[in-house]
């Protein structure tokens, strides 16, 4: 599996002084990133911050990814060309990690081993898209000089056992040839390393054009020229491609529309899409996950970092990762995409303190995506919903296994999941995520003797045969039964694993 926990969101909202900030201004844009960048060090990870103490049930399946800030001295920010040149060293900053001595590779190994000792799969690294010393004014290095530089860094990571590189912004961020060079060097020097590419978005929302205070664009990724083509140019040669940052109020809709558009544009690509913190989307659609939520989050009076309460939905991470231990991520080319013509729309008017994009304050923004998205299914599932709020549904099929999620929608000031009925194709194994009115699964010809289910968060199997129904050729699982089995101590939506055992007599 290619999943990781990323420190970035915690760097913003977990630092102790965050709750004391007098104004939302310190959390906005590049200025907001400064304090987040400065927070990351060995104490925040292993000491008083205890970032490494999270996600105990599944952290052996997650890389712990040190995000932006780990390899520059504290106080270094990309505010001018000279400062930008400091990024991309891939050397642990000595003022941040003084307890890890030795060569660059030995120091990285020290952090990697310390994370493994805390139960993590190992360390991952945020990597600026440039060499330390490159800049917009100072210029870019030749291919030969770049190759020598990155060979050295790959060897450091190989010696240290680093498992993952998340390549993000930098002076070379929009250069597909440079990113391809890194992929080629990886195959030569350290093919076991997982390398994630991206194309930093022009905005964290899809195709928003404002005119006289009104959005005049459709809020769809596919129509957001020229970005889909530029993203696809990098994705086609990537091992992993990240769907990139979105605003929290639109997380599901914006992310799904990007996934659908990219898979449609590049159906033969071997890349796996990373869908960031949308854990259930990753589980159902075969995407990797970059976990951002944290149980260490404390509400900040002047800024809402968590409008959908993800800090209170930690069991969702456990459930998604445990499902993916059985059904790992799928390259785009391995599972066909289908989308409904019908779409859902989300609208939100941003007040100060509700977004880090200052230009969206006092603006009403619209995002849209297909109402139903599937992978590996011959037909779209039949969906029935009496709720006035239109459901947003994803589903997939792999052989005799199906998975489905009903996703949150905004309803007034809060988010909730409309309870729909879904009819899924024949299967003996299912992962059911979200809240449902009922789930119908076509019964295999050989039938079954019993139905077993478990909450993916605790793993205890129970026999629910008598609590389900047979209607013709379908097995019907009531939604309230899923709720009861997956009842937990936080606000996580259910995540149920179901198996049909035996055959009919």
Summary of the model, kept short:
The chain is of the alpha/beta class and 505 residues long. It contains twelve helices and 27 strands. The chain has a domain at 382-389 and 397-501.
Describe the secondary structure blueprint for this structure.
Layout: E1 4-6, H1 8-13, H2 29-39, H3 42-46, E2 63-66, H4 81-84, H5 104-117, E3 122-127, H6 143-160, E4 164-167, H7 176-189, E5 194-197, E6 210-211, E7 214-215, H8 227-235, E8 240-242, H9 251-265, E9 272-274, H10 279-285, E10 290-291, H11 315-326, E11 337-339, E12 343-349, E13 364-370, E14 372-375, E15 382-384, E16 393-398, E17 401-406, E18 409-411, E19 414-416, E20 421-424, E21 429-433, E22 438-442, E23 450-455, E24 461-463, E25 469-471, E26 474-478, H12 479-485, E27 495-501
Parallel strand pairs: 1-2, 1-10, 2-3, 3-4, 4-5, 5-8, 8-9, 14-16, 17-21, 20-22
Antiparallel strand pairs: 6-7, 11-14, 12-13, 15-20, 16-17, 18-19, 21-27, 22-26, 23-24, 23-27, 25-26
Q: What integer value in Å does the Rg equal?
A: 23 Å
Parts with pLDDT < 50 across at least 5 consecutive residues: none
Q: Can you summarize the main beta sheet?
A: 8 strands, parallel
Task: Note the gap between the termini.
Answer: 39 Å
Instruction: Tell me the overall shape.
Output: globular
Number of helices: 12
């Amino acid at each position: 599996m290619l999943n990781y926990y990323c420190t970035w969101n915690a760097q913003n909202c977990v630092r102790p002084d965050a709750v004391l900030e007098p104004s939302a201004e310190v959390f906005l844009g590049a200025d907001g990133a400064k304090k987040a960048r400065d927070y990351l060090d060995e104490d925040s990870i292993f000491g008083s911050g205890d970032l490494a103490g999270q996600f105990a049930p599944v952290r052996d399946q997650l890389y712990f990814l040190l995000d932006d800030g780990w390899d520059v001295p504290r106080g270094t920010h990309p505010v001018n060309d000279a400062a930008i040149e400091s990024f991309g060293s891939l050397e642990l900053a000595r003022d941040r990690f003084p307890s890890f001595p030795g060569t660059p590779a030995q120091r990285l190994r020290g952090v990697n081993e310390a994370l493994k000792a805390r139960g993590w799969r190992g360390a991952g690294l945020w990597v600026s898209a440039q060499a330390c010393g490159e800049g917009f004014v100072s210029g870019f290095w030749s291919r030969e000089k770049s190759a020598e530089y990155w060979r050295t860094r790959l060897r450091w990571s190989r010696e240290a056992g680093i498992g993952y590189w998340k390549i993000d912004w930098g002076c070379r961020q929009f250069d597909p040839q440079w990113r391809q060079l890194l992929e080629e060097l990886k195959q030569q020097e350290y093919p076991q390393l997982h390398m994630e590419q991206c194309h930093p978005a022009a905005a964290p929302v899809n195709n928003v054009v404002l005119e006289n205070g009104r959005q005049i664009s459709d809020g769809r990724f596919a129509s957001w020229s020229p970005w889909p083509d530029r993203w696809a140019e990098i994705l086609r040669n990537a091992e992993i491609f990240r769907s990139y940052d979105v605003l929290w109020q639109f997380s599901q809709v914006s992310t799904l529309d990007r996934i659908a558009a990219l898979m449609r544009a590049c159906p033969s690509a071997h890349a796996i899409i990373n869908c960031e913190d949308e854990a259930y989307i990753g589980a159902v659609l075969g995407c990797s996950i970059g976990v951002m939520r944290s149980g260490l989050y404390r509400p900040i009076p002047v800024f809402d970092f968590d409008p959908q309460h993800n800090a209170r939905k930690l069991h969702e991470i456990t459930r998604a990762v445990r499902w993916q231990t059985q059904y790992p991520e799928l390259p785009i080319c391995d599972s066909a995409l289908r989308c409904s013509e019908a779409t859902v729309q989300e609208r939100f008017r941003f007040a100060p303190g509700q977004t880090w994009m200052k230009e969206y304050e006092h603006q009403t923004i619209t995002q849209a995506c297909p109402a139903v998205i599937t992978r590996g299914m011959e037909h779209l599932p039949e969906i029935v919903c009496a709720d006035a709020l239109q459901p947003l549904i994803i589903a997939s099929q792999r052989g005799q296994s199906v998975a489905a999620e009903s996703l949150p929608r905004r309803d007034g000031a809060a988010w909730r999941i409309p309870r729909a009925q879904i009819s899924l194709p024949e299967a003996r194994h299912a992962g059911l995520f979200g809240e449902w009115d009922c789930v119908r699964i076509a019964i295999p010809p050989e039938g079954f003797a019993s139905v077993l289910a478990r909450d993916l968060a605790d793993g205890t199997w129970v026999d629910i045969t008598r609590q389900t129904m047979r209607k013709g050729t379908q097995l019907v699982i009531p939604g309230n039964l899923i709720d009861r089995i997956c009842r937990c101590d936080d606000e996580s939506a259910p995540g149920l694993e179901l198996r049909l055992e035996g055959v009919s007599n």
